Amino acid sequence: MKHLLSLEKLPASEMRAILNRVGHFKSNRASHERPLAGQTWALIFSKSSTRTRVSFEVGIRELGGNVMFLSASDIQLGRGEPIKDTARVLGRMIHGAVIRTFAQQDVEDFAQFSGIPTVNALTDDEHPCQILTDIFTFEELSGQSIEGKVVTFVGDAACNVPASWIFAAARLGFELRLAAPRAYWPSPGILRRAGAGEDADWARNPGSVTERLQVGSGTVELIEDVRLAARRADLLYTDVWVSMGKEAEAAKRIAELSGYQINRELVQAAKPGALVMHCLPAYRGKEIDEDTLEAHANTIFTEAENRLHTQKAILDWMVGSA
Ligand code: CP
Ligand code: NVA
Q1: In the prediction, which pLDDT does 199 show?
Q2: How far apart are the CA of 244 and the centre of ligand 2, in A?
Q3: Domain identity same for 149 and 199
Q4: The pLDDT of residue 243 is above 60
Q5: Ligand 2 atom closest to 124 (CA)
Q6: Are residues 160 and 267 in the same domain?
Q7: Ligand 1 surroundings by CB, under 6 angstroms
Q8: For the chain, which terminal residue's Cβ has fewer other Cβ atoms within 10 angstroms, N or C?
Q9: One domain for residues 115 and 159
């Protein structure tokens, strides 16, 4: 049985198997393939969502399945029923689950106790579906493989989205630069899990403003100087400064991350024709400015659309017909 719980655990060959099918689903939207015929899938969400929820709901229906959306606050899970009991009940009734929640362990436990295919639709640790979409979109719009390219992530480099980018860099062999103040660099634990070995412990070099780590077949650079990080990048990428669950830290984060914005000046430092992407939702004037978002809206909303085609490729891969 296949799950998609993290990019950390997804081998490069499986990543490519999914990515290779996205274009097929994009160019055959009305195809009559029904790999989920006769199945009912549940979306169990403890956090807000527009893109992930809608793309999975539409995608499951287009693949012939039925879908139910379960807000965690509406089911007994929200009143303290353990995830493993919820999993054992749903596993006897439905065929697959897509879960958005806080703790990564909850998604792992659900997969273990339900015995049905389970997708991580975002946890505090990872956002694997998003980064698969982003890689597809980069390769679609640039016409080039991401292997060997420079991806510069700007902003909170310690949250779920850059963590999934780190694991993708290790698997697919590109250079990932994380432009952030040291307090927002990813934990040594994540870097170690990605394959950085002893070099992962950047905290042992107090005051360092850049660190370059080999991870798997890629590299990760931790860089405080945002302009340096953007230099000759093929892709500039950002995410919100205040992730879901971090609202109490909003004022502090906005103050500390204020220099880490994608704007015209930063785009000029990147490679001519560099793509600008954002997983969305976007907060203009924070992680990206209005003019830059609008100038790159075609890329950013193609990326959003591609969530649908990628979810279909993920589901198709999970149920084994890929
Ligand atoms: N990018 C993303 O996952 O968007 P939603 O939070 O709207 O699902
Ligand atoms: N890092 C963000 C991603 C939103 C899609 C969050 O967790 O809120």
Answers
A1: 87
A2: 6
A3: yes
A4: yes
A5: 7
A6: yes
A7: 49-52, 122, 130, 279-280
A8: N
A9: no
Query: In the prediction, which pLDDT does 43 show?
Result: 98
Question: Which CATH number covers residue 148?
Answer: 3.40.50.1370
Confidence band, pLDDT 50/70/90 cuts, at residue 287: very high
| DSSP string for residues in 2-55 | --B--STTS-HHHHHHHHHHHHHHHHTTT----TTTT-EEEEEESS--SHHHHH
Tell me whether residue 35 is exposed, middle or buried, using C-beta atoms within 10 angstroms of its C-beta: 0 to 12, 13 to 18, 19 or more. Answer: middle
Flag whether pLDDT at 83 surpasses 70.
yes
Q: What is the rounded distance in angstroms from the CA atom of residue 204 to the CA atom of residue 222? A: 14
Domain interval for residue 117: 12-127+307-318
CB 191 within 8 A of CB 219: no
Q: What is the pLDDT of residue 321?
A: 54
Residue to substitute in 46, 283, 307, 314 for testing ligand 1 pocket (most ligand atoms within 8 angstroms of CB)? 307
Residue 42 has what pLDDT? 98
Examine the domain organization and report whether 51 and 147 are in the same domain: no
Q: Give the whole-number percent of the chain exceeding pLDDT 90.
A: 96
Q: Best mutation site among 54, 99, 122 for ligand 2, i.e. most ligand atoms within 8 A of its Cβ?
A: 122
Q: Is the CB of 161 under 6 A from ligand 2?
A: yes
Question: Maximum CA pair distance of the chain?
Answer: 58
